[in-house]
Amino acid sequence: MSTVNGRYDVVCIGESMVLVTPANGQRLADARGAALTVAGAESTVALYLADLGHRVRWLSRVGADPLGDHVLHEIGYGG
Fold it and tell me: What's the confidence (pLDDT) of residue 42?
């Protein structure tokens, strides 16, 4: 497999987002709590390819706020 600039096998470009899921199938408007997870095809593909041993880079833009920090942490870019 050829590399991009000699450093990566694959570069995935695209957004990821925070998915808010209320507990117990409740409506979001009625929920007293919810789980935060990260969703996004490009970051998911990058994570799986990295797990398979490929040199991968994910390029995107996230907000400079706690939700952006959450995305970076969950994907593995945050401290």
Answer: 94
Closest residue by Cα to residue 5 from 44, 68, 59: 59
Question: How many whole angstroms from its chain centre is CA 22?
Answer: 19
**pTM score, whole prediction:** 0.75
3-state secondary structure of 51: helix
Round to whole Å and give the CA distance between 43 and 70: 13
Distances (CA, A) of 54 to 33, 41, 70: 37, 17, 24
What phi and psi values does residue 70 have, to the nearest 5 degrees?
A: -65, -45
- Rounded to 10°, the helix 66-75/41-51 angle is 30
Paired tokens of 65 = 């706020």
Give the helix/strand (H/E) hosting 13.
Answer: strand 10-13
For residue 7, CA distances in Å to 30, 34, 53, 57, 71 come to 48, 39, 14, 9, 24
